[in-house]
Design brief:
mainly alpha; 5 helices; about 80% helix
Length: about 90
C-alpha cells in the first residue's frame, strides 16, 4: 500500500474509529518511535527559533513566529495524543 492510499483510507475513518485505532496503536511499543519523532521535530524547531544567527536577520520575526506556530502545533498534537492515551 502506498502512503497516498494510506492517507485516503485514514480519511474514511470516523473520529471515533480514529481515536480507537490510535488508542490500540499506543499500546504497541513501536509507537514510541512516533513520539520520539515528534519530540525531535519540536526540539529542532525550538533550536531554530532561538538561534542567535537568526536574531539579526530582517525576516527573523516572521521566521520565529512560523517556528513558534510549529512548536505550538506539536504541543497541541501531543496533548491530543495524551488525552486519547489517558482516556
Amino acid at each position: 500500500m502506498s502512503f497516498e492510499e494510506l492517507l485516503r483510507e485514514a480519511g474514511g475513518l470516523t473520529p471515533e474509529q480514529a481515536e480507537s485505532e490510535l488508542r490500540e496503536l499506543m499500546h504497541d511499543p513501536r509507537f514510541r518511535a512516533v513520539l520520539r519523532m515528534l519530540a525531535n521535530h519540536r526540539e529542532a524547531l525550538v533550536v531554530n527559533a532561538s538561534s542567535l544567527e537568526l536574531a539579526g536577520s530582517p525576516s527573523a520575526a516572521s521566521l520565529a513566529a512560523h517556528q513558534l506556530g510549529g512548536i505550538d502545533a506539536i504541543f497541541s498534537f501531543e496533548s491530543i495524543l495524551r488525552g486519547i492515551y489517558e482516556a
